[in-house]
């Protein structure tokens, strides 16, 4: 009997929490940098916090099956609130801290939320108006008092006030807590993860405890973490990745989960902790890489030479190994010095000194980025999956092929069988088995659209890499485009490569079956170009002015020419324009994950696109803009159409 | 939030006259500051605003008149005693220690509350250690309040002017004042820095529930945040009312725009 009980694993996240609190009560579970010092919480501390919160939720009338919304930067309280909600059997929706009021309102309505945990005044101000409009939304809890001292609203509670709703905690309350947690089953709904809304309005992906545990255990198996490993939580909780790694694997492994003092202190915290696992989105890796390049622009000539030499040796010794070219002894000899002089300090500066595993995921990363970090001695590994289905592939082992998105993860876990996969006729990846797809919340028709029999359509166009174990990601099936001549191309592929240029911040490639060639809308990096302009004696006033300087256009054109060389002749960029303003999520041009909202941008800048195809030299446009303080205005600018070289160097 | 001075003002100055040789800097000025009031002191250059603030905080001795703080006559007290009574002030410009960190500069403001002697601090007695932790905790709360955590270890000299003024304010707060006097806290700042600081001043009043007196040139800020505005001109008080009323006052307008004699 005893052994059988031991074998029986906890089935939900709160059960895991109680399991850890019992077996590892004095081990440190979480650390939070407060007042300049890392404050520690043991598993028992965490359990007691969650107990109080759960009792607080009960006192506010929250019951099994209801929905709780979390909106905060990553901090221990956010985790505790999630676990408390799960303990009582409620489901959780985590939102980006910079979600705007209408986005929050949509989610509150769609998920029928009855309680919101909001970090501070900024979040509370966004949620309070919703309380008036949605009578079900009865409780809002904050944990950062700044600016909220004089707020008096029915149902708005401070953290301490909320925790002391049931005070003192009696033995029967603890008993009830243990009981309600024990009632949880692995097939219970734990989360609704809202899709970013790149295609239509966001949908809440139903995620069960079993699915979270399944994916976390697969990630754990591929990571091979050391015992008592430190993890820094900074990926937003609204991403599946953080739910799998920080929230679930943190309980399962268990890891010590750390929280930085402020969101802008993440880089500092990573350095302090020498994190073993570093997880950045592609844009963050790109901005780290661009940061290295941008800071180099300011450096003295001899410094630049040393850094370039170090990176070149690193690339020859380490990165080209990815393409299985043997290392020369002379390169290996130089690597010793290059590492001491350039590469190690660089790793240290970027906070990657202790990184054993460096992950990226969410979107495609340029192979150039892989190569740059590999040169430094940091091997990036791609994780590929979707919030609907979970983990699908990840780079494993010593060899990393930068062109692929990793090997398929075909392993069973204690909670779900192994994944099955196939590629459909349209080139889309389809999967079944695994943790499975539980549908979208309240949208059965949308869920049905995603299924082809028992197969879930990921909608990603993929191909097979070497050995037929690794996937190559092209683009979304619906985003693969063809030109008038029938030439296929992937916009994203080109965009990622263009964005690797330090001068280009965002870029949207345009071209479809009605067009003969490809064009691009470019959002230049104002900061980098600002420096560049200073050094090259180019005077400018505003971003708009800077973007249209002939010198800037020429520089962008030469960046495009470099990328053009890597593209097939039929799919090269001919014309481009520098946008007179930066693309902005607040204006609906980007999603919160900083993905382009293509239709919207295409509509907004249609005059520019037509001008490029009509081969015009200039175009006057007027764009309505909204300033940060909410005022509306109009931006009027003459935009020059740039021409990029489509010649190959190798052309005879 | 109180519009009118409460029956028992916290700070009360009566018939203050201040003379430098033959120059009369302040002539028969009486003011009252109630608890939790946010009062702005304005006036053209040389009107005597800073002089008045210096008299209130004990830096100048008035030639004539009395200053009462919470019922006690502080007019003849030395500066450090006034500070101990709970009157903290900042100066025009910044008077910080440029080579010390932000944190250390704020800890300097705790000096008054420190009890351990040089010997006990040098040998690091247990209670000296405990005391240090206590003061550090207070300083950290202030760093958090003023959003300075990310630069806590930066030398003050490397910071921009706006940030330095914020550290200056932090040092005044470290004294745990019962009343705050700010001398031109926003001079030389850009609009954004001013907005930030205005927000902090309002937050101080709201969270600590203490009165704040500020000397300020920026009319926009004054009219936005002050409960009451006191206008000085050539050493005399010419108006003392809410911002709205003061804006309409003929004497104030002529003081600022120049009047026909």
Task: Give a structural overview.
The complex is a heterodimer of chains A (652) and B (261). The longest helix of chain A is centred in the middle third of the chain and has 21 residues, at 329-349. In chain A, helix 15 links the parallel strand 13 and strand 14 (380-386). In chain A, helix 2 packs parallel to helix 10 (240-252), helix 3 packs across helix 4 (76-88) and helix 9 packs across helix 10 (240-252). Chain A is built from 22 helices and 28 strands. In chain A, the strands form seven sheets. In chain A, strands 4-3-5-6-7 form a five-stranded parallel beta sheet, with helices on both faces. Mean pLDDT of chain A is 86; it is low at 1-7. With 652 residues, chain A is of the alpha/beta class. With 261 residues, chain B is an alpha/beta fold. Helices cover 38% and strands 23% of the residues of chain B. Chain B has ten helices and ten strands. In chain B, the strands form two sheets. In chain B, strands 6-7-8-3-9-10 form a six-stranded mixed beta sheet, sandwiched between helices. Chain B has a four-stranded antiparallel beta sheet with strand order 2-1-4-5, with helices on one face. The longest helix of chain B is centred in the middle third of the chain and has 20 residues, at 126-145. Chain B is globular. The chains are: A alpha/beta (652), B alpha/beta (261). Chain A binds chain B through residues 34-36, 145-147, 149-150, 261-262, 264-265, 268, and chain B through 103, 136-137, 140-141, 143-145, 149-150, 152, 203, 206-207.
Brief characterization of the structure:
The complex is a heterodimer of chains A (652) and B (261). By secondary structure, chain A is of the alpha/beta class. In chain A, a hairpin with a 4-residue loop joins strand 17 and strand 18 (428-433).
